[in-house]
Amino acid sequence: MPRLALALALAVLATPRPADACGNTVRRVVDTTNHAVRNAEQLLAQGDAKKAISTIRDEFGDRALTAPTDDSLHQRAHRVLALAVVRSKGELAIGAELGGKTDARRQAALAWAVLSLRLQRPVHDENPLHAADLAEALALQASGRAEAYGLLKDLADRDLMPGAHGWALLAELGRERGDLDLSKKAVERCKQIVASGVQCDTTENS
Fold first, then answer.
1. CA distances from 49 to 44, 79, 147, 154, 204 (A)
2. DSSP string for 62-110
3. According to the model, what pLDDT value does residue 68 have?
4. Which of 56, 83, 104, 105 has the fewest CB within 10 Å, making it most exposed?
5. Strand partners, 98
6. pLDDT at residue number 196
7. Cβ atoms within 10 Å, residue 74
8. Residue 129: strand, helix, or coil
9. How far apart are CA 29 and CA 155, in angstroms?
10. Which residues, in sequence order, are CB contacts of 130 under 8 Å at separation 6+?
C-alpha cells in the first residue's frame, strides 16, 4: 500500500466515530461529577461543611435537593448535603429556603436532612454507615433522640460503629440516659479515631 494511502487509512481509523465521541463526552461528565463528589466527601470529613455544600451545589444544582435516584453519584451527593446540614445544625443555607439564620429555616433544613437520610436507609438495610448518618440527624430533633440512641447502641453492641461522629454522639446520648459506662466506653473509642471537628467528650467544656 502506498505511503499516502496508508496514512489516510490510519487517519480514518483514528478519527472518533460519533458514538465514540458521545461516549467520551459521557465519560468526561461522569469523571468530573465523580471528582466533585469525592472532593465534597473529603471536605465534609475535614469538617468544612460550607465548602462541601458549595461543591455539591455547583455540580448538581437543585437536583442535589431531590430524592436520590439509582444513580450512585447522586446518592452520595445527596448524603453529603444532608450531613452538611446536620453538622452545621441547619445554619448553612443549601437552597429552597432550607437552612440559614432563622429558626424556621434551620428546623426545615434538619427535617429535610432526617427525611433524606431515612430514604437512604431502606427497611432491613444493614449498612452501619446509613444507620449512623440517620442517628446524627435524628439526635438534633427532640423527638428523634431515643431512636438515635437505639441505632447507635445497636452498632456499638455489634462493634460496627463506622466513625468518630457516631461514638461521640453515643457518649452524649448514653450520659443523657444515665448509662455512664456506655458513655465512657464511647468516649474512649471516639478518641482512638482521628476525625476533624469531633469533640468526643462534651463534658470537658462544662
1. 5, 12, 25, 27, 24
2. GGGGSPP-S-HHHHHHHHHHHHHHHHTTT-S--BTTBSSSSHHHHHHHH
3. 76
4. 104
5. 95
6. 83
7. 18
8. helix
9. 37
10. 117, 120, 121
Q: Which three cell numbers stand for residue 41?
A: 466527601
pLDDT at residue 205 in the model: 58
Could you state, in chain order, the average pLDDT of each consecutive group of 10 residues for the chain (206 residues)?
38 41 51 93 95 95 85 91 96 92 95 93 83 97 97 97 96 96 96 89 71
What's the CA angle centered on 46, arms 78 and 97, to 5 degrees?
40
Closest CA to 60 of 93, 34, 27: 34
Most distant CA pair in the chain: distance in Å?
89
Which grid cell is 83?
A: 450531613
Task: Output the pTM of the full model.
Answer: 0.81
Amino acid at 133: D
